[in-house]
Amino acid sequence: MKKLVEILPDKQALIERSLTLVLEKMQSAIQERGQCTLALSGGSTPKPLYEALAEQPLPWEKIQVFWGDERYVPSDHPESNQRMARQAWLDRVSIPAANIHPMPTSAGDPARDAQNYETELQQWFKLHSGEVPVFDIVLLGIGDDGHTASLFPRTEALKVSDRLVTVGNKDGQPRLTFTARLINQARCVIFLVAGESKRPALKQIFAPSGDEMTYPARLVQPKGELWWLLDKAAGAELNSTTSDQRAIGDQSLKANN
Ligand SMILES: O=C(O)[C@H](O)[C@@H](O)[C@H](O)[C@H](O)COP(=O)(O)O
């Protein structure tokens, strides 16, 4: 795993940097394999990135869009991650409908829909039983509590090691989520983190040792590249002594001040 941390001056710079990085990874995937498989994060942070992607002249037929997690609500519900990404981006570009793979939430049973999406992934990636899809890009955020995707602290989803998709739980509300096992197969994982409220969780996530059940984002150790793009409000305490490139263990920290 190659881990890179960049601290950007503000959220606008964070979004601009995330756009250039995502475009770079999309382009290399398409050049190397003829297509790019991308799993989206939900929440509020990535929305301006999705809006910026809608302005890009991309070969949409070569881009396959999945979701890394989803609230267990109808696709037209204000809380739906699918709805947010469609309004911000996908409804605004000529991407084929078949290239959009939302997590299903209509079976009335989160466990059944988690299995449905797992089956869809296995079929789409043409996998044999037991094989794990390798996404080109997985976008993630973190909550103030250190969760990522819908892998929430001290929940059963964190222990699931034999599935691709499972049921997350936020305060009793079911969600569908990639498992850590699936996320960690990715060629490139990109965390987008903005805002001072994320600072305490980031310190725990970046600590040399810590409890993954308490800070689930610590579970994300992909085989490929791991990028942390932070704004200064979120990442300030990770960069207390230097403003240039420096190595901390296996990670390099760069502040674009
Ligand atoms: O479905 C979701 O909400 C996300 O996948 C979730 O993991 C999100 O990334 C974090 O909660 C951060 O959310 P914000 O970007 O809104 O801070």
Compact summary:
The protein has 257 residues and is an alpha/beta fold. It is built from seven helices and twelve strands.
Overview of this protein structure:
The protein has 257 residues and is of the alpha/beta class. The radius of gyration is 17 Å and the shape is globular. The chain has one domain (7-255): Rossmann fold (3-Layer(aba) Sandwich). The model is unreliable at 240-251 (pLDDT under 50). The protein has seven helices and twelve strands. The strands form two sheets. Strands 5-3-2-6-9-10-1-12-11 form a nine-stranded mixed sheet. Strands 4-8-7 form a three-stranded antiparallel sheet. A hairpin with a 2-residue loop joins β11 (246-248) and β12 (251-255). 27% of the residues lie in helices and 23% in strands. The protein has helices at residues 11-33, 47-53, 81-88, 110-124, 180-183, 199-206, 232-235, and strands at residues 2-8, 36-40, 63-67, 69-71, 100-101, 137-140, 165-170, 173-178, 188-193, 225-231, 246-248, 251-255. α1 packs across α2 (47-53). 6-phosphogluconic acid (6PG) binds at residues 41-45, 69, 81, 141-143, 147-150.
Properties at a glance:
3-stranded antiparallel sheet, 7 helices, 23% strand, Rossmann fold, 9-stranded mixed sheet, 257 residues, binds 6-phosphogluconic acid, single chain, alpha/beta, 27% helix
Helix and strand topology:
Blueprint: E1 2-8, H1 11-33, E2 36-40, H2 47-53, E3 63-67, E4 69-71, H3 81-88, E5 100-101, H4 110-124, E6 137-140, E7 165-170, E8 173-178, H5 180-183, E9 188-193, H6 199-206, E10 225-231, H7 232-235, E11 246-248, E12 251-255
Parallel strand pairs: 1-10, 1-12, 2-3, 2-6, 3-5, 6-9, 9-10
Antiparallel strand pairs: 4-8, 7-8, 11-12
Helix pairs in contact: 1-2
Enzyme class: hydrolase
Pfam family, one: Glucosamine_iso
Keywords: Hydrolase
